[in-house]
Amino acid sequence: MGVAARTARAGAKVCGKEEKVVGVQKASGSCPYCGGRVVATDMEAKWVLCFLPLCLKNKHMFACTACARRLITYPAIVQD
Q: Which end of the chain, N or C, is surrounded by fewer C-beta atoms within 10 Å?
């Protein structure tokens, strides 16, 4: 591998966002679109600037296994 290729490869990781799947588990309920099973995915997102981590976020995402749609949860509405 040449010097230019190594520099370009290293430059790609200097700045940006890195996401990593931490775990996948079965979630309760079913998909409102097709009735399939729902899985919960725990993800870790890290923003990096010049090899220094700026922000570390943990996300909890839900998706249907049958239709592959990303499902969104809404907070409960409290009414007086």
A: C
Q: In what order do the strands lie in the sheet with 70-71?
A: 15-30, 37-49, 52-64, 70-71
pLDDT, tens only, 30-76: 999 999 999 999 999 988 888 788 888 998 999 999 999 999 888 77
Identity of the residue numbered 62 = F
* Tokens encoding 42: 């725990």
Nearest to 65 by CA among 22, 45, 23, 35: 35
With a CB cutoff of 8 Å and minimum separation 6, the contacts of 26 are 37, 38, 39, 40
**pLDDT for residue 13:** 58
**Rounded-to-10 torsion of CA 79, 29, 45, 23:** 140
Tell me the whole-structure pTM to 2 decimals: 0.63
User: Hey, is 67 helix, strand or coil?
Assistant: coil
